[in-house]
Amino acid sequence: MENSLCILIRRPPYGQIHAAEAIRHIAGALNEGIPTTVLLSDDGVYVARDGQQVGETAWTALAPALLKTIAKGARVLIHAPSAQTRGLVQNEHFIVGAELIAEETFTQTLAAAGAVMVY
């Protein structure tokens, strides 16, 4: 789709700012009316983990911000092989609205995007 954006998040939600910046860009794209799909792979699958506990760290849980992007129309897709490798294979591990997808759907989504940003 020509005027669509795919944001691929491969890094974990804590310890680096990459995932938080990705969510900021997702919100910005949605505010501009750009159809946006979020792909979570590798350690990025943890961004959609339900019930994140940041404890006394300086980090903010990202799942609530990701939920807001879903409410605004973002499609959030979780690479099932990445989730499985990390012991997260069931939907109850993830926020409501995020979808587990197979490898084939993952690659098709990337190929169909008008633009891809990688974090």
Topology:
Layout: E1 5-9, H1 18-31, E2 36-40, H2 63-71, E3 75-79, H3 80-85, E4 98-101, H4 103-112, E5 115-118
Parallel strand pairs: 1-2, 1-5, 2-3, 3-4
Report on the structure:
The chain is α/β, with parallel strands linked by helices and 119 residues long. The protein has one domain (5-98, 111-118): DsrEFH-like (Hypothetical Protein Ychn, Chain: A). Helix content is 33%, strand content 19%. The protein has helices at residues 18-31, 63-71, 80-85, 103-112, and strands at 5-9, 36-40, 75-79, 98-101, 115-118. Strands 4-3-2-1-5 form a 5-stranded parallel β-sheet. Strand 2 (36-40), helix 2 and strand 3 (75-79) form a beta-alpha-beta unit. It is globular. The two termini are 21 Å apart. The model has no long low-confidence stretch (mean pLDDT 91).
